[in-house]
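G., the chain you wanted modeled:
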Amino acid sequence: MALSLLAKLGIGAAVGGAALLVTRKTGDSPRIRVIKAAIGEIGSSDAAKYWASSLPGVNMTGQSWCGAFALWSLHQAGLATDWFWEPGLGFLMATHHSLPRTTNPQPGDIAYFDKYQHEAVIYNVTPTTVQLINGNSTGGKVAPSEVPKSSVTAFFSIEPLISAAA
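Predicted structure as tokens:
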């Protein structure tokens, strides 16, 4: 599944053993880097890795990690590297920083659902749907999904992070 997602985006990949290795071309846009990081983790259930990036030094074993995965994806792309998870708030609505909501989501942005307070990385947008890479998805793994735009509570733009990194 991950290889077909990468092919749709024109991103090269190779499978070696059980791991998906995503090639990173220099000069990729920040949005492509976010998507590559997320897609490269499809099938992973390594919540500790995502929490180590999002809330260093705190043991979050047993906690839902979809938001930690989304923030980890941003960190891997070189964005929001000084942003961390705030217990009770997450990272989208933390007290020290925030991302603006948007009605025009783009690949690399973050989708938020009130149900389960779920967060996911957007990798494609159609007129009526969004395709997502979800941490802590079915079976406790990173997995893709496609949902109607209308089912998403809010979309958060990473554009300010991109502008700040430029």
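The CA atoms of residues 66 and 135 lie 4 Å apart.

Shout if anything looks off.
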